[in-house]
Amino acid sequence: MTTAKDIMHEGAQWIPRTETLDRAAQLMRRLDVGALPVSDQNDRLCGIVTDRDIVVKCVAAGHDPSHITAGDLVEGTPRWIDANADVSEVLEEMESHRIRRLPVIENKRLVGMISEADLARHLSDDQIAAFAEKVYAVR
């Protein structure tokens, strides 16, 4: 059985919800990633902030990223997957919620992220096609 931990990208880091967006962008650049999980004061996942969020919801809206925090942007219920979940569960979670990045949690701690690139490296062409159809299809 292939698990989430088998296909995830290790070394994911999260930022506290109180961190400013300019610092989040700097960390994204340093890590070469487009999204960061956001933690609350108890080190629990409370959302994800993406590079697109920073540009569209902050900069393009005329806000100063040095004064807006990651917590200001996160919304909704954060989605995640247990490290031991089967890859079919990973696909179901990502497809049903139409998300492109999924934090992987083990023992209540962030251990990695699964992105579209990770799926492309580990899944069959048919699985990737089905994923793309479900995530990108216009509803």
TrEMBL record:
Metal-binding among keywords: no
Ribonucleoprotein keyword on record: no
One Pfam family per UniProt: CBS
Keywords associated with the record: CBS domain
InterPro entries in alphabetical order: CBS_dom, CBS_dom_sf, Diverse_CBS-Domain
All residue ranges annotated as the CBS domain in the record: 8-66, 73-130
SUPFAM superfamilies associated with the record: CBS-domain pair
Protein name, per record: CBS domain-containing protein
Record organism: Streptomyces netropsis
Lineage: Bacteria, Bacillati, Actinomycetota, Actinomycetes, Kitasatosporales
